[in-house]
Amino acid sequence: MIEYRAYHKTRPGKRGSAGRAVRKKDKARARAGTPPPSRGRLRLIAWISAGLLAVGFTGVAFASAYSWLTRSPLFTVRTVDMNRCANVSLEEVWAIVRGDGSGILWSVPSKEIARRLSGHPWVRSVSVRKSFPDRLVVRVQERTPVAMVNLDALHYLDEEGRPFKRLTAYDPKNLAIVTGFSREELLRKDPVTVRNLQKTLDLLRGVEAGALRKNVSEIHFDAQDGYTVVTRDAGLQLKVGTMDVKDAIRRIETAMPRISGMPRSSGIADLKTEGRVFMRPGE
What we know:
- The chain is α/β, with parallel strands linked by helices.
- The protein folds into two domains: 75-142, membrane protein fhac (Ubiquitin-like (UB roll)), CATH 3.10.20; 147-280, Rossmann fold, CATH 3.40.50.11690.
- 42% of the residues lie in helices and 21% in strands.
- Strand 5 (154-157) and strand 6 form a beta hairpin.
- Helix 6 (191-208) runs parallel beside helix 7.
- The longest helix is centred in the N-terminal third of the chain and has 31 residues, at 2-32.
- The relative contact order is 0.06.
């Protein structure tokens, strides 16, 4: 028993001396400025390095793909799908498309093409979108001229009363002329002027849809005297004053059959009085 105890007394002493040796080594490293290695830190460094390499390879791959997409003839614009228009030609659209770069669909600036097409006098609204791999879809809504206005030169007026195109020798001139508004007033877009012009156009549309279908050569507005409608065939001046547009249309509808039966159906017809038609020679 004495030998057995002596044997086991020596084992803890050996383990204690080994622990003291390890602690001595750690202290020596600490004094030398070299901390003990950490597996977690090495693992983190490895993950960061792998991530940076993956990002680098991905960037190179994307750059190569972008370069191929913007140069590949597979994506060259070959078709412009455009709705039928009376005054905007497909050739005009192609000229803008070809003038805006290489013609590769990826690099075609659809917003810029739409902006440039919006500057066309006949274009009211336009949309441009890409249809891969090689088609450009263009949808144009054209303006509809409803009358002409003299602004030092004849211009078309659209449904909203906006002058949008100066007439040339080749443009049709079979619309009624709106008079009584100066160039300065229309360009200034004064609210009162805009409202009076819109009422004048409403009166024009109303009478052309009824008794004076295709028979209005001029419609004049005067702030004091009101509206005067001039017929195309006989040059008859129908004066309706400053009354409401609907009342003016109704009076012209009622008076025209009576005027047609009169011996003299030209000159001036004063319709300002309800139920009465006063005829007098033209001015």
